[in-house]
Amino acid sequence: MRIQFLMGSQGIRGPSYRFIYGNTKEISSMREKSMGGPMELSHHIFPRLQPHLHSWFKLYGMIFLQWHGATAELVVTDPEFVKEILNNRERYYPKPEADVFTKKITGDGLLASKGEKWTKLRKLANHAFHAESLKSMIPAMIESAEVMLEGWKKYEGKEIEVHEEFRMLTSEVISRTAFGSSYLEGEDIFQMLRKLSLIAGRNDYNIRLPGISRIFKSSDDKESDKLEKHIRDSFLEIIRKRQKSMNEEGSNGMDFLGLLLKAGVDTQEISVEGIIDECKTFYAAGHGTTTLLLSWAILLLAINTDWQEKARQEVLKVLGCGRPNSEGISRLKLMGMIISETLRLYPPAVALTRKVQREVRLQNLILPANMNLNIPALALHHDSKIWGEDAHLFKPERFSEGVAKATNNRPSAYIPFGLGPRACVGSSFAIDEVKIVLAMILQRYAFTLSPNYIHSPIQVIAIRPKHGVQVALHAL
Ligand code: HEM
C-alpha cells in the first residue's frame, strides 16, 4: 500500500497488488493463452511473449508498477532511465537475489555475485576473454563447426533441424575453449544444467512462501537438489583431473579453467567452490544464448534468401572457401549487421533486472528501497517509436552505420548484451563463434525454410523456437 501510494503520488500506476501472488497469476494466465499455439510467420512477437506488458503499457504508460508476489517491480522502458540504471557505478542498483532454482544453475558466480567478489571475478573473466585469448580460441570453434558440418552431409538435399545441432555445437565449443575438456566429458553436465533451466523456467512465475517451501519440498525442489549435487560432483571430477595434470606437467593450460585454478593456487583469490560456480556460470550463460542466436539467424536467413545470398557473397569475397581467421571474421560487416538485427528481433535475454539498494532519485522519480527494476529488452527492441513503423521487420540495413544511428541516438534502447559494468563478458566470444559457424555454413550450403517448420516462439527464460528450426539444405 505504501509503495503503491508513493509511486501513485508521482504519477506511476499499474495493476493492483493481489494478496500473496501479486500479479503473477494474471501474468501466467495471459502468457498461457498467448503462447498456446503457433503464430503466423512474422517477427511481431512481443505481444505473444509478454502479453501482460503489451496490455499494461497501453493502460498505464511505458513506466508502470507491477507485483511479483510481494515484491514491487517498476517496469522501465525509457532509454534515458535504462542508461542511468545500467551504467550506475555507485552500486545503487545491484542485481536482485536470484530465485532458488536459478541459484542452483549459476551459484554465486560472476553472473550473480556482487561487491568485491564480483570485482575479482570480473577481472579474471576479462582477462580470459581479452582479444589475444579469443584469437587462441578460434581453432577450437572451427574444429567443432567442422565436426558438425561433416554430420550435415547426410542431410544434403533433405531437411535438417538446426536448433539441436547448434545446441551440441555450442556445448562442445564452450567445453573445449573454457575447460579444455571434450564435449563427451561435459555432455552429462549439459543435460543436467538443461534440466535445471527447464525447472527454473516453469517456476518463473510461481510464488514461494518462505516458511512453507522449506518444510514441504515440491518434486521440482527435490529433483533440482539432486541435479545440483550431481553437477557439483562432475565439475569436481574435471577440476581434480586438471589439478593432477597441472602437478604432473607443470602447465595449467590457456583456457578459463586453467586461469581460475592458477588464480586459486597463486593468490588464493578463488576457492574450489568458487571455481565450480564459475564453471557452472560459463556453461549456463555461454551456450544457450549462443545456440538461440544461431538458430534465429538461420531462420531469418532461410526466410530472407536475398540477405543469405549477400552474406554468402561477402564470406566468399573475404574468406574464399578457406578456413575463417580472426582478421577475416572482423571484416564480415554484412554478417555483423545480420547478427545485430537477429539479436534485436529475438534477444535471448528478454529482460534485465536490478534492485533499488536504498531510496534513490532516478531521473524525475524517487524510488523506495528494495523495489525491483525490470528493463524489458524485448519491448525496447520492438518499440516503433525507436525503430520506426517497420520495427517488426528483418532489416539488417538499419545497423549499417552502427547502433547510435539505428536507434536515432538512443543506443541504450538496444541491449542484447546488457550495458555498463555488468554487460556480457562473453559477447565477443559469442559473436566470433556465430560468425565462424555462419560463414562455414554459407560456404557450403544454401538453405530455405522447410514446409514442416512451425513458427511458435516461446519464452522460457530465453526466447526459444518451440518446435525447433527446420530448413531444407542444398549443397553448393
Ligand atoms: C548471444 C550470446 C549471448 C547473449 C545474448 C548474452 C547476453 C547477456 C546479457 C544481456 C548479460 C547482462 C545481464 C545483466 O545485465 O543483468 C550477460 C551477462 C553475462 N554473460 Fe552473456 N550473453 C551471451 C553469451 C555469453 C557467453 C558466450 C558467455 C561466456 C562464455 C557469457 C557470459 C556472461 C557472464 C559471465 C555474464 C555476467 C557478467 C557480469 O555480471 O559481470 N555470455 N550476457
Automatic annotation (TrEMBL):
<dbReference type="GO" id="GO:0016705">
    <property type="term" value="F:oxidoreductase activity, acting on paired donors, with incorporation or reduction of molecular oxygen"/>
</dbReference>
<keyword id="KW-0408">Iron</keyword>
<dbReference type="InterPro" id="IPR036396">
    <property type="entry name" value="Cyt_P450_sf"/>
</dbReference>
<keyword id="KW-0812">Transmembrane</keyword>
<dbReference type="GO" id="GO:0020037">
    <property type="term" value="F:heme binding"/>
</dbReference>
<dbReference type="InterPro" id="IPR017972">
    <property type="entry name" value="Cyt_P450_CS"/>
</dbReference>
<dbReference type="InterPro" id="IPR002401">
    <property type="entry name" value="Cyt_P450_E_grp-I"/>
</dbReference>
<dbReference type="InterPro" id="IPR050665">
    <property type="entry name" value="Cytochrome_P450_Monooxygen"/>
</dbReference>
<keyword id="KW-0560">Oxidoreductase</keyword>
<dbReference type="GO" id="GO:0004497">
    <property type="term" value="F:monooxygenase activity"/>
</dbReference>
<keyword id="KW-1133">Transmembrane helix</keyword>
<dbReference type="InterPro" id="IPR001128">
    <property type="entry name" value="Cyt_P450"/>
</dbReference>
<keyword id="KW-0349">Heme</keyword>
<keyword id="KW-0503">Monooxygenase</keyword>
<dbReference type="Pfam" id="PF00067">
    <property type="entry name" value="p450"/>
</dbReference>
<dbReference type="GO" id="GO:0005506">
    <property type="term" value="F:iron ion binding"/>
</dbReference>
<keyword id="KW-0479">Metal-binding</keyword>
<feature type="binding site" description="axial binding residue">
    <location>
        <position position="424"/>
    </location>
    <ligand>
        <name>heme</name>
    </ligand>
</feature>
<protein>
    <recommendedName>
        <fullName>Cytochrome P450</fullName>
    </recommendedName>
</protein>
<comment type="similarity">
    <text>Belongs to the cytochrome P450 family.</text>
</comment>
<keyword id="KW-0472">Membrane</keyword>
<dbReference type="GO" id="GO:0016020">
    <property type="term" value="C:membrane"/>
</dbReference>
